Amino acid sequence: MPWNPEESLSRQELTKLQSERLQKVCERVYFRVPFYKKKFDEKGLKPSDIKGVQDIGRLPFTKKVDLRDNYPYGLLAEPLEDIVRIHASSGTTGKPTVVAYTQNDIGTWAEVMARTLAAGGTTKDDIVQNAYGYGLFTGGLGAHYGAERVGASVIPISGGNTQKQIMLLQDFGSTVICSTPSFALYIYDVACEMKINLDTIKLRVGLFGAEPWTEEMRREIEERLRIKAIDIYGLSEIIGPGVSSECIEAQSGLHINEDHFYPEIINPATGEQLPYGREGELVITSMSREAMPLIRYRTGDMTSLNPETCACGRTLVRMRRVLGRADDMLIIRGVNVFPSQVESVLLRSEEVAPHYVIEVNRRGRLDEVNVNVEVTPKFMEEMATKVLSTDLKTFVQEEEELVRLKHEIQKNVKDIIGVNIEVTLKPPNTIQRSEGKARRVIDNRPK
Ligand code: DLL
Questions:
Q1: Going by CA atoms, what residue is nearest to atom 27 of ligand 1?
Q2: Which pTM value belongs to this model?
Q3: Radius of gyration over alpha carbons of the chain, in Å?
């Protein structure tokens, strides 16, 4: 059931609401944020030229570099005395990206996160173990406020502390977990090591996001933890988590809270708007934010939009699962590859575990990719009984069974993605686990 009737408006009603909010936000940024006044002026645009969403293509884009150039407070549309919260996301280089909220923004955030939790089937009867990190990262407090708004009991355990997570899952009877998908798998592994009987855990749903993951990973998590795994998406610059989420009824695309966040898909190379169904870069205008609204923010995330009404009754447009950021795309011998595509091929082999890291090296003028992936403990045991000579400690890569599996994976990658990669099989529990966002790529190429 949708949390708010605004999730099921007719397209006509929604467009009217969006157009009103878009006009207002254009006024707000033009008269309050010098950066935007300059951008509008350069295009010869006045806020009054924007009559509705049909005119959005006339507006300038905002990029991450604009946030950095205006660090820390240059893009605020409200005086600091009216700001009640500041978050930041760590960039790969230098200063973090700063985002600010007024009291009303915090209210909007709690509302969209309540929608996310409700879409995942959470009610006031649930106990929500919130394993997103609390702090500058928006995951922890975002999920916290949403869960409270729904009326659930929130356990603010934050990320990390894996053994304690398991203890609380058992003792507090948590029914919903919020975490990155990679951390959920880590919790499962540790629970197995601790020989925990999963029947003692009441978990039924997980709300997973903050990093790219695949359908294959969803299946692994659902089978192992015996829960429904829901994809939730967002980014600090726009609000944090709460931009879009799947519903438990369909688990088929993430409903974008379009009444607050106007989505467009563009060709990242040309900036041209693309129609529904076409894959491109997601661009979002945060129409109802007060402290730091952004106009046509280029998220860097690649997806497509589907306008069909969903089985759950929500009319909000759905975005396809994010394959990855345009910046994370690897170009292997001219072929564009997202780490998540490698993940989905790896997990087709039942003998490998969902723990991997992709290394990229430069040899001469060519990029070489080596995928390190763990075999499952079951495969390891079978190998030990079949190949008596195998010294499991040294994990000899030339061993017949390993060579067969390695070739099978390489062939799958070649057939499905169309590139040649090197594969290094690793014994169980040797690839570093993540308690937050997983680091899937180690790029050793000279900058
Ligand atoms: O990761 C907000 C968040 C917290 C979302 C908790 C979901 C759950 P940032 O740290 O600013 O904010 O990172 C945002 O993470 O642009 C995407 O590239 C990636 N991302 C977030 N959710 C997903 C997802 C939070 N479900 C960046 N699938 C975004 C794929 C995701 N990528």
A1: 235
A2: 0.95
A3: 23
What is the dihedral sign for C-alpha 97, 102, 105, 106?
positive
Judge residue 131's burial from the number of C-beta atoms within 10 Å of its C-beta, 0-12 exposed, 13-18 middle, 19 or more buried.
buried
d(CA 223, CA 229): 10
Contacts of 374 (CB under 8 A, 6+ apart): 352, 353, 355, 356, 425, 426, 427, 428, 429, 430, 431
Residue nearest atom 13 of ligand 1, based on CA coordinates: 235
Measured at the CA of 355, the angle between CA 185 and CA 183, to 5 degrees, comes to 30
Closest CA to 65 of 327, 248, 286, 362: 327
Q: What is the CA(115)–ligand 1 centre distance, in A?
A: 17
Tens of pLDDT along 77-102?
999 999 999 999 876 567 899 999 99
DSSP letters spanning 327-346 = GG-EEETTEEE-HHHHHHHH
Alpha helices (H) along 131-214: 138-150, 162-171, 181-193
Q: Which helix (H) or strand (E) covers residue 422, if one does?
A: strand 422-426
> From the CB of 273, is ligand 1 less than 6 Å away?
no
Peptide bond into 275 cis (omega under 30): no
Estimate to the nearest angstrom the gap between the alpha carbon of 224 and the chain centroid.
21
211 lines ligand 1 (CB under 6 A): yes
Tell me if 299 CB under 6 Å of ligand 1.
Answer: yes
Phi, psi of 261 (to 5 degrees): -120, 110
Sign of the alpha-carbon dihedral angle for 308, 312, 315, 319: negative
209 in ligand 1 pocket by Cβ < 6 Å? yes
441-443 and 352-363 as β-strands: parallel, antiparallel, unpaired? parallel
387 band by pLDDT with thresholds 50, 70 and 90: low
For residue 235, the CA-to-ligand 1 centroid distance in Å is 5
Lowest mean pLDDT among 319-323, 353-357, 363-367, 439-443: 363-367
DSSP 3-state of 232: strand
